[in-house]
Write a structure and sequence with these properties.
The protein is mainly α. The protein contains 8 helices and no strands. Helix 5 runs antiparallel to helix 8.
Length: about 170
């Protein structure tokens, strides 16, 4: 196979194999392949996650585990869908990496007492976005939320032929 590639280059011809030739329906494929996510679906996911995340702090009858753990996981899942909305053709692994880096950056920023950050955190929106009080366990909660978002994203790509396609990338 290597010699064939060398012969093709020597002959001066460009024989690229189309992506469609390698398409299979495995989850691993969807994890690494560029896709064409629906921005409407990504926005809808954000629109569903935000009220759920707010409810985890506001609804008193939820179990304590849900009240203490789910909000951070949902926040990170929302970050995942935000990156998916901004970059709909980005592979799932790259969206997850961006969401993880952003989430870790926000958590690490909680170690800083810079006046601008303190002032921003004193508002309701600033506290929701930036959080307050660094906790290592939050990093695990973020990872869990991003992992669940990836699983849902991959399920949508695999289950709905128009959601994550490789066919229209060149258009």
């Amino acid at each position: 196979m290597c010699s064939q590639a060398g012969e093709r280059k020597q002959a001066g011809r460009n024989h690229e194999i189309p992506v469609e030739a390698f398409v299979n329906l495995s989850i691993a494929h969807y994890f690494v392949a560029p896709c064409n996510r629906s921005r409407v679906v990504c926005a809808a996911m954000i629109g569903v996650i935000i009220p759920l995340g707010l409810a985890t702090r506001a609804v008193p009858w939820l179990p304590e585990f849900v009240r203490s753990e789910a909000g951070d996981a949902l926040w990170a899942a929302m970050v995942y869908w935000g990156f998916a909305l901004l970059f709909p053709r980005m592979p799932a692994w790259a969206v997850a990496a961006c969401a993880g880096a952003f989430s870790c950056g926000i958590e690490l920023s909680q170690l800083s007492s810079h006046p601008l950050l303190v002032q921003a955190r004193s508002t309701r929106l600033g506290a929701l976005v930036l959080g307050y009080g660094f906790l290592w366990i939050d990093l695990l909660r973020y990872a869990a939320g991003i992992a669940l978002a990836v699983v849902l994203d991959l399920a949508l790509m695999r289950g709905h032929r128009d959601y994550g396609t490789l066919k229209n990338l060149s258009e």
